[in-house]
Each structure stands twice: as structure tokens, then as C-alpha cells.
Sequence to fold (239 residues):
Amino acid sequence: MWIPMWISVNNPTDMAAVSSAAMSTPPRLQAVVFDMDGTLIDSSWVVPAAFIATIAELGGPTLKRDEVIASYVIGTPAAIMERFLGRPIDPSEIDGYHARLRAETELRGVHPYPGIVGTLEALAGSVALGMFTNADLGNVDVLLEAAGLQDRFDALVGADEVAPNFKPAPDGLLLACERLGVTAASTAYVGDSPQDGETAHHAGSVAVAARWGHPMRDVSAFDLAVDRPMDLPDALGLT
Fold:
């Protein structure tokens, strides 16, 4: 069943509010592309810890975890570091950040959200799978490897490949679609922030809110909200 509005497929109150007249059948999806942090994996401790330590070592401000998380909308790790340091950074400094991130993942661990692995396995039989993140490919390599997800996708895109056109610009999602050999209109983009919903709409894709990583009260930027990963195939009409 397809529900073309921002409702939760696991919330009876939301479901009761949708009349049968509001439901329609979309074009068959050919691909599902996921955001990474907060959608596929819980990196809410390791990534901030790596930024906090690296920026302090480079003479920047002492940051709080919430400040770092709020900065993700800026773009890649390099863009975030430059914002906090107030100057350009060189490649060795971003390499140092990635080394710190790897150390943090080894210390604390990074895991997929419950249900993600099974959901990816279920979807892989019917659609192409991609991942596009506002982080860079260095983060992708470290975090997906730590979470055991590095071989689950047909295409991986980091925002450093489309800089400076970070989310909510559609460039990264469009690049993922190109690599998957599908149109943006036949693709769903799953993410955990309003910026992800805006990115999907700018690309012409279906915007899906991933509510399982953290509460999202305002999902007005999305076409559909899903509370649990295992509900995603049914919500997208892929069962």
C-alpha cells in the first residue's frame, strides 16, 4: 500500500486519518537510497568525539556533542572543520580526523540500527540499493566497515564528490541514481533529517523519513514516515 503523505505506517492514529481516496499507486520503485548517519547506523557518539578531539588539537574551540551534531547540515567533515576553525584545512588535517574517527569506532563500536540488515536483505531482491551521505567517502569507508555494511550497496556517494553542492542540493542523490542506472523519479531516498526530505524532493524522488534513529516530530518535508526499518519494504510497496 502506498501512502503519498507524511504519515507513520506504524501509527494507528495516523493510518486512521488517511482516507482511501488519498491513496494511490506510484510508479514501481527501482531503487532505494539511504542516508548513513542516523539512518543506517548509530554514529552519534563516535563522529562527534572525533570532531571534538581533532578540532581541539588543531587549536579550535572546545565543542559540545550537540554542537557537532547540529553542524552536520554544513556538509562534509572538511567543511565542518573549516567552519569551526575559521580557516581552510589541508589534506593532512582531514586525514587526521579520519584516523581519529577510526580510533573512536574501534573504541566504542558502531552498529546498524536494529532491523537494518534484514531490511537491506529484503530490499536487495527487488530494487537497487544506494547510499548517499553529506559526509565524505573517508567517513563512509570507516563507518560502513565498522558496521559491517560496506558490501550491502550497489552505489556509494559521499558529499565530497559533489562539493560544494551539499544537501539539500540534489547533486549527490542524482549521482547515486546515475550510478545505479535508475531515474530519480523511480527512487526513494530514506533519511533522518528535514534536509534529507528536501534533497529527495529537489531530485524528484520519494522522500521517506526514518524515525527509528531518533524522534522526528516534524516530518512535513517528507512524503512518508516509517517508524521501524522492517516496515520499509511494505511501506514502499515492495513486498
User: Anything to note?
Assistant: The beta strands are 31-34, 41-42, 111-112, 128-133, 155-158, 187-191, 206-210, 224-226. Residues 1-7, 12-25 have pLDDT under 50 and may be disordered. The chain has two domains: 12-42+111-235, 46-108. The radius of gyration is 18 Å.
